[in-house]
């Protein structure tokens, strides 16, 4: 398995590390890094210069243990080394863009791609927790026993219902991942209670006993399977409420008729959480007018994020 990095990922991470006040690298090394970097500006050819920058930054990326912070958690999942041709890290600017994906190409084989905000290097414990969770997603996608398929498409369902199904699937998968990590035992992204609340909200149309049964089974399942998660996610109950919002229909939050619906895919997690504070039953698939989306975006920004 080859490790690959996007230029701006390595550059950003090295700078974050160099500027760290607490527990940063020795000041002398930071000075050496900056001096060596300045010298590279004398290279006239822009491509050559960029290559030189990347090489230098990668050296310090390794020297300051940043690569180790990524590789350590990856090695907890042996399938990654065995089945991936490359593990690629790239930079995400906002939280919504973070996450892991698996790409399968005819020429380059399988590549795991992890996008993360470089600010995470400032909080090593959180970084490890985040990576472990994302690597677990990749691990499942590689594991024949999990039987992953990227196609989460259900015939005869409208776009909003597809989105709601994918939202549910994602939640179920997260529960199955954090349940296994917690049993390992490893620190997880979300605790059992946190997942339980999200699950109850998403599957509120089930009786309490059924919710408990399904959640508990998921949390302790050592070998979850894609088809089972998908079967739960595509329960037709509750899907009826997922209409593609129509122009002129009422916004489920403010109740006003709206022609300006917010783009559901552009609504960030903190905004969704802020909406849930007031409307626990609301789902992304029901949509919201742009004005409400903006109001809750601002509220979500102010509230501290439970991580
Ligand atoms: Zn996840
Ligand atoms: Zn509204």
Descriptive notes:
It is a single chain. The chain is α/β, with parallel strands linked by helices. It folds into three domains: 2-142, no CATH class; 153-238; 245-307, no CATH class. It has helices spanning 7-18, 27-40, 46-63, 66-74, 78-83, 124-142, 159-183, 192-202, 208-220, 226-233, 269-278, 290-302, and strands spanning 2-5, 86-91, 99-105, 109-116. Strands 1-2-4-3 form a four-stranded mixed β-sheet. Helix 1 packs across helix 3 and helix 11 crosses helix 12 (290-302). It is globular, with a radius of gyration of 22 Å. Bound molecules: zinc ion (2 copies). The site of one zinc ion (ZN) has 8 residues, from helix 12.
Notable traits:
single chain, 307 residues, alpha/beta, 4-stranded mixed beta sheet, 12 helices, 4 strands, 8% strand, binds zinc ion
């Amino acid at each position: 398995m080859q490790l690959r990095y996007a230029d701006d990922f390595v550059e950003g991470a090295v700078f974050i590390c160099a500027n760290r006040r607490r527990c940063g690298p020795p000041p002398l090394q930071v000075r050496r890094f900056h001096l060596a970097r300045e010298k590279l500006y004398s290279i006239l050819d822009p491509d050559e210069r960029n290559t030189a920058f990347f090489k230098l930054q990668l050296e310090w990326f390794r020297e300051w243990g940043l690569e180790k912070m990524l590789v350590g958690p990856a090695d907890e999942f042996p399938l990654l080394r065995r089945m991936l041709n490359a593990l690629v890290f790239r930079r995400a600017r906002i939280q919504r863009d973070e996450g892991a994906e698996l790409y399968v190409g005819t020429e380059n084989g399988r590549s795991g791609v992890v996008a993360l905000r470089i600010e995470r290097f400032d909080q090593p414990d959180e970084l490890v927790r985040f990576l472990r969770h994302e690597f677990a997603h990749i691990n499942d996608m590689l594991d024949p026993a999990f039987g992953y398929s990227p196609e989460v498409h259900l015939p005869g369902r409208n776009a909003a219902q597809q989105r709601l199904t994918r939202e549910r699937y994602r939640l179920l998968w997260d529960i199955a991942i954090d349940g296994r990590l917690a049993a390992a035992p490893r620190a997880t992204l979300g605790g059992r209670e946190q997942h339980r609340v999200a699950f109850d909200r998403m599957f509120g149309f089930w009786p309490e006993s059924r919710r408990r049964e399904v959640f508990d089974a998921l949390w302790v399942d050592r070998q979850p399977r894609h088809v089972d998660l998908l079967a739960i996610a595509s329960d037709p109950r509750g899907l009826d409420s997922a209409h593609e919002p129509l122009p002129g229909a009422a916004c489920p939050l403010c109740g006003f008729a709206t022609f300006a619906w917010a783009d559901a895919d552009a609504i960030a997690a903190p905004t969704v959480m802020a909406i849930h504070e007031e409307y626990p039953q609301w789902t992304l698939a029901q949509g919201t007018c742009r004005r409400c989306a903006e109001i809750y975006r601002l509220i979500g920004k102010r509230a501290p994020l439970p991580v």
